[in-house]
Every structure is written in structure tokens, then in C-alpha cells.
Fold Lysosomal dipeptide transporter MFSD1.
Amino acid sequence: MSCNLKLAQILLFLMRYLPFSFLGSYFCYDNPAALQTQVKQDMQVNTTKFMLLYAWYSWPNVVLCFLGGFLIDRVFGIRWGTIIFSCFVCIGQVVFALGGIFNAFWLMELGRFVFGIGGESLAVAQNTYAVSWFKGKELNLVFGLQLSMARIVRMLNNLMGQIESQIKNLVGSSWGMTCIFSLICALALAYLDLRAERILHKEQGKTGDVIKLTDIKDFSLPLWLVFVICVCYYVAVFPFIGLGKVFFIEKFGFTSQAASAINSVVYVISAPMSPVFGLLVDKTGKNIIWVLCAVATTLVSHMMLAFTLWNPWIAMCLLGLSYSLLACALWPMVAFVVPEHQLGTAYGFTQSIQNLGLAIISIIAGMILDNRGYLFLEVFFIACVSLSLLSVVLLYWVNCAQGGNLNYSAKQREEIKLSHTE
């Protein structure tokens, strides 16, 4: 009994430290979006070049996310992998801040590149930690709690523009402390994970058979459709937020502060709603149906922003709700369709192709905005979300043909779990 009590306490601490160990990466990712006007003016760059700050973050992860998952699965283990990738995040943010201080755009690009080397691999470690310690119906809730912390710090990041106006030459340097705090939490998390492993008397994960690149062709069709949904959805969210502040100023006549506020409302809503939606998906199951609702609502949101002059708060609130719901329902599905020993690789590959999409779309979005304006950019985002919606429908039919496990209710999953333990 005392052993179980200790384990429960450790798992509770894991839930607490898990989001904080990735706080710095989440906070610093959207630094450029909060400072779009200031960076473009001070560095004298156009939108296309400004969006390179996001592209440079994504390019290394086209390879490193898959490699990061492989290293977590096969080489470092999850504990050392988390610590090493946290160090890259810290170094990259320091270099990025120095570029801002010395008005050196190339240095900011270098910082984002180094930051990206660790950032997405750190997210792979986060997902792997979650699915390693939390099984079954608790998994969606844990994903929701992680996402809630991510949204809170990204919301705070949108205050950076106002802070910059007060402390112009120090922007980025003090907030880089969030990365150091995250590194400390990663160390604490590694200790707690090691202690829990000792209490359970289980061996540390072995490397097993070496994963070959040819293994990718053995991924199931449902998993590939999850990849497509993920990429097409997020390329219509993150680049939009990256360019959203000026969009609300130009189209709706918002002040800079009001534009920052509405641009952050997606994260404001996601912070409390992510764990709520995670619990909802836990209790009901039906992951594909929830993903369908989220993508359809996002499509409506983008269409409202593109073709109407309705109060944009309505569309952005809908986007915040759908964004929260999709993450809670979509990401756990990866764990339902791959063997446990390949979870790190599967999540790594998901992040890899997502970053390929973000790197390409960030540049394309900047070019469209420079040459055609925001209306054409919104139409482009609508096309991306429409493709994601089509993929969800295909996933539903493919999953039905293969037994329907991705769309089981919570009761069905519990019955299957009990039947396997008997």
C-alpha cells in the first residue's frame, strides 16, 4: 500500500513538472509574432523575411524531430533526451535575444535555428513522457493539462510588444529566464521519473531493434491520415497567429494593444478549455467525431474572418475552442495505432512533417501577404483547413472499415481493457 501511495505521489509530481519542463519553449516560440511591427521596422525587413524567423525554427525539425524521437527511443532515453534538448532551447533563445539587442537580424535567425533544434524534439519528449506514465482514459486529460500550460505562456508572450515599448533594448533577455526555469524542471522531472522506475522495479527502456527509414512505409493508413490532418490544420493556425496582429490593425482598425489582445484570445481560451476538453474526450471517447467538429469549426472561423466584417472576437473565440478540442482529441490517437516502443518515433515523425509544412507555409504566407494581401492569405488558409476536413472524413471511413478503434466510446475502450486483463 505504501508503495502504491509513493507511486501515486510521484505521478502527481510528474503531472505538475511535465508542463513546466517545456514552458520556456512554448513561451519563446511566438516571440516574433508579439514583436512583428517592431522587428520589421527596426530590422527593415518585409513580411517574407520576417516569417523566416518561423521557417528557421521549423527547418531543422524536418529531420531532427524524427531523429529526436529515435534518440529518445533508442539512445539517450527519455530523461537524458529531455535535458539535452532543453539546453539547445536555452542557448537558442539567448542568441535570439542578442540579435534583438544588437539589431542583427542574421543573429536572430541563427538563434531561432538553434532554438528549433531543441524545441520540437522537446515536444516529442513531452508526449513520450505523457504516454509512458498515463494510460487509458487519463491520457486525453494529461494532454489537455499540458496544452493548458502551453496556452497560458503563449498568451503571456503576446504582452511582449507592450513590454518592448517600455524596455526597448532589453526585450527577450529577461524572458529567456523561462528557458532556464524549464531546464531546471526537466532535471526535476528526470529525477522523479527515475524514482518511480525504481519503485515499480522495472528496467529502463531498451533500445530494441534499430528502426529503419523503410519502417515508415509500414505506418498504417489511419496514421498517415492523422499526419495529414495535423499538418493541414496547424499550418492554418500558427502562421495566422504569427501574422494576425497586423491583420486586425489593418482590416478592423484595432489599436496595437487591442490587436495583441484579440490575437492572443486563442491561447486565452485554450488555457482553461484544454483540460476541460481533455476530460470530455476521456469520458466520451469518439475521438474522430471530436476532431471533425474541431476542424469544421475552424473552417467556419477562417471564413468569417475572410469574407465578413463581423466582430472578429466571435471568429477568434470559435478558433480558440476548436484549437483546444482538436489537440485533445487528435494527438492521443497516435498512441492508439502504433506499438508502444515506437511511440517516440511516431510522435517525432508527426512533428517532423508538421514542421516541414510550417516551414514552407510560413514562407508562402509571407509572400502572399507581401504581394496579394490578407484576403488572399485567408483564402489560402481556408483551402488548407478544407483539406484537413476532407482527411478527417476519410479517416472516419477507413477506421470504420478496419474495426473503428479510433472512434470507440470510452465504455468500449474500458471493456476491451478489462477483457485483456482477464
